[in-house]
Amino acid sequence: MTPSAIVKYLDQYVVGQDEAKKVLAVAVYSHYKKVAKARSDTIDPVKSNILLVGSTGTGKTLLCETLARALKLPFVTADATSLAQTEFVNEEIDAILQRLLEKADGDVARAQCGIVFIDEVDKLKAISGQARGASGESVQHALLKIMEGSPVRLKHGQYIDTTNILFICGGAFVGLDQIVQRRVGKQTLGFGADIKSKKEFKLGELLLQVQPEDLLKFGLIPEFIGRLPVIATLHELDEDALIDILTKPRNALVKQFQKLFEMDGVKLKFAKTALSAVAREALNRNAGARGLRAILEGSMLDIMYDVPSRQGIKEVVINEEVITKNDPPLIVYQKEAELA
Ligand SMILES: Nc1ncnc2c1ncn2[C@@H]1O[C@H](COP(=O)(O)OP(=O)(O)OP(=O)(O)O)[C@@H](O)[C@H]1O
Ligand SMILES: [Mg+2]
Prior knowledge:
Blueprint (H helix, E strand, L loop, with lengths): L2 H9 L6 H24 L8 E4 L6 H12 L3 E5 H6 L3 H15 L4 H4 L3 E5 L16 H13 L2 E3 L5 E3 L4 E6 L4 H9 L10 H13 L4 H7 L3 H5 L3 E4 L5 H9 L5 H10 L4 E4 L1 H14 L4 H17 L6 E6 L1 H5 L5 E4 L2 H4 L1
């Protein structure tokens, strides 16, 4: 799969984030080229593990999951938070590789070219004053070995070499923007009526300028940062992007609701203003696209409850007031003539 084919596939499910898509596609493509070349030349490939930085709900996890589907490679996701909470970090890490092997149907060679996505790596930041054994820092140390590439012995005595496994790490890195800002020395606070929107715009922009030294200040150890040479930043999602997320992806929320209503023979329509209202409410919640589903489901509950037990409904129109004031939606009934 070429980089552009990968991006094209991602576009079907992930709205925007063009930069991050490109970086991922190129990195994955060159990774596998290097692997193929190294096999024939017996040269060790240089690994380009990837760090995805972006606020909550901007699509980091979605991007990686979609990427895995596109590539049809063995792919596993691990959560750094749970690694940080266990006493048995090394066992947990071995278990990740074990799962990768299972995803490859037990084919060691295939598993050795797989992808491991470690989410929430920002939760591994070193906290000063914390005992080292209990800290995320020790998990970072434990991860170094497999990220660099080494043979790991799994529980059934099989060895898996992690040299050619691509690691993608993701995290929201709350507060990283301020660290970048201090370095860049920019003033973020705007004046006037739209202080908030100005500030948000700058936040996303700041994260685009992340350098390894900022991650160091954030609390990642240098060796860990050094193993993540590619950094891709995801943008904050604005109102238009959120509306697109509601309507455009193949499995978009609006499409899902429409399908549900279709099963009852009802056409469901959303006014543009209603979609904007959902997007604005999601922006207020500061959780990116994550809030969209809850907001929409909350507003749709009453009508979802009513429709199946009412006869003769032809159309339901969701307008702005349904979202903002919890008003009932507009219901169009089939004409008597149509019924007869
Ligand atoms: N760019 C996007 N395009 C389409 N859907 C998106 C996008 N960003 C987020 N979403 C939707 O929002 C939800 C949350 O996204 P996701 O889990 O990828 O966020 P995240 O960046 O991993 O956040 P977190 O840091 O909290 O883990 C998902 O249901 C996803 O469908
Ligand atoms: Mg996530």
